[in-house]
TrEMBL record:
It comes from Trifolium pratense (Red clover). It catalyses: L-lysyl-[protein] + acetyl-CoA = N(6)-acetyl-L-lysyl-[protein] + CoA + H(+). InterPro entries: Histone_AcTrfase_Rtt109/CBP (IPR013178), TAZ_dom_sf (IPR035898), Znf_TAZ (IPR000197). The keyword Transcription regulation applies. It is found in: Nucleus. Keywords: Chromatin regulator, Metal-binding, Nucleus, Transcription, Transcription regulation, Transferase, Zinc, Zinc-finger. Pfam families: zf-TAZ. GO terms for biological process: positive regulation of transcription by RNA polymerase II. It is an enzyme of class 2 (transferase). Transmembrane segments: none annotated. This is histone acetyltransferase. Residues 8-89 form the TAZ-type domain.
Amino acid sequence: MESNGISLDVIQDWLRKMLDLLVHASQCRSAHCQYPNCRKVKGLFRHGMHCKTRASGGCVLCKKMWYLLQLHARACKESECHVPRCRDLKEHLRRLQQQSDSRRRAAVMEMMRQRAAEVANNAG
């Protein structure tokens, strides 16, 4: 499968590398790290701490960083993860899932109630 001429494997490989870089940069304390693009990601972390526009205001750098942070949080299994906002995002995703589950349960219960009412009406 291709998206704009780029294979899905290439995109997935790139995303995997970006997420690995995100984890590395969040733990790296070296000022002269040789890990490819580590300094760029550290710069994005700094940008995010000081940006007044933010992703909600349309900052492209912040939007890119939030996208990567959200992707990371969805896949992260570490309870003590050092990636910025990981725990917050995981908690937010957990709450969204709980809300979705509650709505689904309520819909099933309502459907069962309606069917029971139909059966009772048809039997009487």
